[in-house]
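hiii so um. not sure if this is the right channel but i have a protein structure encoded as tokens and i wanna go backwards to a sequence. like what aa goes where. can anyone help
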């Protein structure tokens, strides 16, 4: 089977950064619910893109400093100059709140999650040049323990560079094709630290899109990413929003942030810098 290309479709998104009730078209909303994923091409403006890229460099430097302090080149899923997962960068770089709580992201959340939304997680994912590692097939919900019941949440994957197969873009396996719309048990790969949940032969659909585009997918949609075989970084920033707080059973301790954004249809948080 050859790899299908999930290229960014044309969009009527004329000014996604202005306050409006809806950001997605009815067709895009329907595609998300049917296939578990949809792309918004060139959804963010140049100023926002510059903000996210600048903060990405700072997050990578912070991760390198942590590895230096521990005398290692491997820290969790991070591998120096190869693969970076910088979690919750806005907690040390509050300028990111301007994007996390922007009218654009508010509109996306209202369109896909409804009247109650919490910020669950955010992180940078970066692949180093000339061999930045692949990332295995998984559901984002696979990184939440099996005994933690939760509704599927929303992942917003922001392309900070032009994305194509050669630089290790993501591949999405539509839920409509796989037929799985709930969390499945994952297996920990000791060699990479990845959680792996799909072992079939479907290569998935490559997300080919320009910098500034946003791939939106459900936390139960399987996805993976390839190797970066170019001489440049491949950078992305993702934010995850949930319907409700996701808490560890028996403790009430939340996974991630569980920070209220919209409650009962009312925007209640914007985070002062």
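sure thing!! here u go:
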């Amino acid at each position: 089977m050859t790899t299908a290309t999930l290229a960014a479709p044309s969009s009527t998104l004329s000014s996604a950064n202005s306050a409006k009730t809806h950001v997605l078209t009815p067709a895009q909303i329907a595609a998300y619910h049917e296939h578990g994923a949809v792309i918004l091409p060139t959804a963010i403006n140049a100023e926002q893109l510059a903000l996210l890229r600048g903060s990405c460099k700072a997050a990578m430097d912070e991760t390198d400093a942590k590895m230096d302090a521990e005398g290692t080149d491997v820290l969790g899923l991070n591998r120096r100059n190869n693969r970076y997962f910088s979690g919750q960068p806005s907690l040390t770089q509050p300028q990111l709140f301007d994007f996390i709580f922007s009218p654009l992201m508010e509109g996306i959340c209202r369109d896909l999650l409804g009247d109650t939304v919490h910020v669950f997680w955010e992180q940078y994912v970066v692949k180093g040049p000339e061999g930045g590692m692949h990332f295995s097939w998984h559901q984002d919900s696979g990184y939440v323990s099996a005994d933690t019941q939760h509704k599927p949440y929303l992942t917003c994957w922001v392309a900070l560079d032009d994305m194509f197969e050669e630089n290790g873009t993501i591949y999405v396996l539509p839920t409509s094709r796989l037929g799985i719309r709930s969390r499945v048990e994952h297996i920990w790969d000791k060699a990479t630290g990845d959680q792996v949940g799909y072992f079939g032969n479907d290569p998935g659909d490559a997300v080919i899109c320009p910098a500034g585009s946003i791939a939106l997918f459900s936390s139960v949609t399987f996805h993976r990413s390839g190797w970066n075989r170019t001489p440049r970084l491949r950078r992305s920033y993702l934010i995850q929003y949930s319907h409700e707080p996701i808490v560890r059973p028996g403790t009430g301790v939340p996974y991630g942030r569980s920070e209220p954004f919209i409650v009962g249809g009312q925007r209640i948080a914007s985070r002062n810098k």
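oh and The longest strand covers residues 117-127.
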